[in-house]
Amino acid sequence: xxxxxxxxxxxxxxxxxxxxxxxxxxxxxxxxxxxxxxxxxxxxxxxxxxxxxxxxxxxxxxxxxxxxxxxxxxxxxxxxxxxxxxxxxxxxxxxxxxxxxxxxxxxxxxx
Length: 111
Fold this sequence. Notes:
This protein is mainly alpha-helical.
């Protein structure tokens, strides 16, 4: 039994890493959703959005939201560094991660 487990661990030494990485991605996705919902509720519920404190609060939440999305995308892309044989379709999709980061950083503009 232990010999079989040892052989399985040797075949895929990164399975624990990918399980941990999947957990981190789930938590970051949940946190990003919470931040986005919080910003939406604040923007809809605030009476006077022109004061300094509401503006600073929304700015802080927006910066935290963008940092969370950046770390999430970096975490999703991190697996490419540890895979020996990457499928060709995955390599075609990889540049779009950088494009998504640009859209997340500059996509939201206040009117």
